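Q: What does the assembly look like in three dimensions?
Context provided by user:
Components: three
Sequences:
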Amino acid sequence: MSSIARLLRAREAGILVMLVLFALVVGLIQPRFLTAETLRIVLLAVPLIMVAAMGQMMVLVARHVDLSIGSILGFSAIAAGMIFRDHPDWPLFIGFGVALLSGALLGLFNGLVVTLFKLPSIIVTLGTLSLYRGLLFILSGSKQIDPNDIPEPLIKMAQTSPIDIPWIVIIAFGVALATHVFLTYSQIGRQIYAIGSNPAAAPLRGIRVMPVTILVFTLSGALAGLAGIIYAARFGYVNPGITGVGFEFTVIAAVVIGGVSINGGVGSVAGTVLGVLFLGAVQVALPILGVSGFWQNAIYGGIILIALVIDRTVRQGGLRGLLARGGA
Amino acid sequence: MSTIESPRPAVILREAAKPRPRWQVILVRPETVTFLLLIIATIVATRLSPFFADLGFILESSTYYVEFAIVALVLTIVIISGEIDLSPAAQMALSACLFGTAYRAGAPIPVAILVSLVSGLAMGAFNAFFITVLRLPSIIVTIGTLILYRGLAQVLAGDKSIGSFPGWFVGIDYRMIGIVPVPVMIFIIASVLLGLFLGITILGRQIYQIGTSEVAAIHAGIRVRRIKFGLFLASGLTSSIAGLLTASRLGSVRYDLASGGELTMVLIVMLGGTYIFGGRGSILGTFLAAWLLVIIATGMTVANIAINAQLTVMGLLLIVSIIATNAIYARSQR
Amino acid sequence: MSATGPLVSARGISKSFGGVEVLRNVDLDLMPGEVHALLGENGAGKSTFSKILAGVHKPTRGTLSLAGQPVEIPSPIAAQRLGITLIHQEPISFPDLSVAENLVIGQVGARPLGRVRWAALAQEAKRLMALLDVPIDVTKPMRGLSIADQQMVEIARALASDSRLIIMDEPTAALTPKEVETLFKIVRRLREEGRTIVFISHRLEEVRAICDRVSIFRDGDRIETAWTADLSDAEIIRRMIGRPVADYLHRGTSHVGAVALSVRDLTLPGRFEGISFDVRKGEIVGLGGLVGAGRTDVARAIFGVAPASSGTISVDGKPVTINEPSDAIALRIAFVPEDRAIAGIFRSLPVETNITAAVPEKIAPRGIIRRATEKLLASQSVEKLSIRLASVRQPIGELSGGNQQKAILARWLLSDPEILILDEPTRGIDIGVKAEFYDMIGELAASGRAILLISSELPELLALSDRILVMSEGRLTADIPRAEASQEAIMFAAVPRSGRHTVSGAAA
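A: Here is the predicted structure of the complete assembly.
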């Protein structure tokens, strides 16, 4: 393990350096960027992305991709929001349960279609991106969940907690920690890496590719569902036509920046967390620098492409290593 | 049985599997299924509303989808070659916004059109560079450029629309050749030309070969990278043309022009029976699928199904069509 | 036989792929505590048989029993449960995982949610590697390991699995003699522990050194099972190829003309270095060596698939630049690649399309395909090479391997080449068709073509070549004239002398 860790740590170190450099450069131009207040804003901005990014990372490690998470987020947020609106007396955790469960079910459907019919996940989830969005319009009757329907305690979770760090931040880092433990210390976690590293060899090695892959998509869906309720907490409303639209691209950008390889088999929680923080920093820095918010998507797109090229270069170095036949 | 050249039929069983009967080869094809669905959909739609018996109504209602259908023709060829391009809708938006910006800056319309077409080529070349030179997978590269291109369109146009184009430029969907609106005519002509290109030219043949096995194509001396580069250029150029058609139809451009179009395009191609893993498919299938989609979508609108809820059907249709196409091809392959 | 019954009994095992039968009615018993060799030429069915035992393929017909109990082995997982491990011919690995993880991942008994104990894992991995006497850092990722090292990890994995039956499919192909010796030591110990080893190899001396019994396969049939000591080498070879070796013998020295292809100092770092040789018109130059020695890379460089980074190639005495295959084709070079299924055929496309793939200008002079011309060219080729098929419109994937290969050869003959590079042209081909290929290759040379023949089958190299070049670890290590060529001479030059490259560029 330690050597892979070394390699990954090298990648992560690179991202960390990028993040620090970025902060310094922005800070040089606008000193007020380098304040605790900025850190607070960044930390508040990232839980949504971070939770979903953990799911997407697992999907990418297994050499798949999930484009439907934005719609899943929207669906779960609506589902939970409707519970809150129609049953204000029910306890909060039921809303959480509904969000997680509905996300998991939609993710399960993705996983089933991809594995049962052996289809490319990108096309399947492009289809379900549209399918789930349509379903959420039908479910909600195209009506928004208004701010006064979102319970007060939920809103509070986006603002504070007993230890003064907002609950949603604690939840996000908790999810990251749990994902790390799962991926590093469980047999299934390691099998996800194995499947992504060499899908053809996995069944020959006795790995049950299908259930593991289905699990990965289900987890990705459930985490997108959790992101849905975080959305409701943070923004205080859920709109069927807005909530989660284009969210998948933000998350993919974060994960790819975090050094997760689109070729599968490579990726770590630490890298992903850094990728998410980097994206959050960019988001917060733009208005401070006086750059129009319209630039955000163009920058994300550019960052994805740059990350791809970097990943490619790293791989090539690895390839050369593979070809060199060292004498035993 | 078809022609038998073997001198010793007795050994055939050991040397080669029996070929499938000809009727099966012709009938069990995704295009046939698309055609049958088209007929069924038309019948159902005519029952639903007498409007559908009127060809003019169908042609008119097709103008919204025909822009995507034109790009889908090129996308079909891209997918047959074993690649994919998810960025055309974003390319439509960016090239249209460039057109609008150039016009607003005082350029005459022909110059603005030229700007838009050149930008289409440039975006195609940019995609192609990542895919054929850096050899990155097209599926993820075009996700990146999809975000980038639409992001740039947003930078260019903000959240406002650019409009007030001269009257002669606006409303191309109302100009008719006979009873056929101009964009639909362009689609029909492009279908015929691209169908011939794919069907009878050596380049078309080589595209199928690349999609069937890229490695074998390289070993047979086919210039794989050059051909793929050309395909992405064509995709960019076609997208900018489609963007201009959209600008003319709407009379204005916004950064969110053709948003979600990548789904519609992929849906048309998949519905037409093109194999998602490359090597199989046809322009005929895509042509039929475009009309199938027009009838289904218009039918839903006539039946008062909200446009948002229609997303459900489109998504489901996409998934069902890849499953069906895959099943048909899996049957014919051992 | 002995007091205990057989561990494995196979009865009437048959297997077909796409209508082509590759294994016919095979009966075989494997005893506990024996090392059993499966011998046969490539495509004889021995690998298919072992994959059936390991649950990779399901037999079309026939039954298996394990320790007297009838069993079905539907998957590799089921095989592992039953205590059967297959060491694959080409080592399979997860390049992003560490060596230690590769040793245990997917192992039976590991609970899905069970914890991965990294420290214990590393400890066990180190113990296994020490057993095999391989100094590999088990914490490093597999990516970057040499083929030989990967093979050793694969073997270590089998040891860790504690299996009753271990099948080794050509485990020694990439190993050094010292590593082979270590492997044999382990195999002997496993035998003493009462385990059964199935050993597949092409090297008879290895079979003699370690195997108690041999089973010989030919063309999908099990021809014979016997004690190793009871058969002479010549008898084994005769049973493998079905007729005396002498039949293959060379067509006689032909007229060798001017130099057609000449390479000097061809180098692609990490693949091959300083390769220099000539091939003359009418000459068949053999190129031998172990798997992974870089032979295919040299061929791919000459043909422009993966060009060399330095060195020169000359055709008919003139230096040329070959950046991609189309350049090579324009210089009338043809290349029949080793991996037919991937680099040769277009599986789902008609035979005629496959045959005419390299001559677009012949079937479409102005860019438009002329169907009649295409059909004519294809039918002529089919007749000339007697390719057996039902129709030229049939997908090539429906043909047998030999006929597919004939179609690929036909493709290149249409391009009218002066220089032919044939990479393992008879791999996976029926014995009868093989003989046809030998005749064709001979005729091509006799008509003045220069031929570079890459082959791992020593009898084939010896029978056909005028001269044999040998590569080892990316360098040319020998240039053996026909008169002095022998299996021993080739093997001597092919075996890596790790670290010390004393012999280099032979033609210089």
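Follow-up: Chain A has one domain: 45-290.
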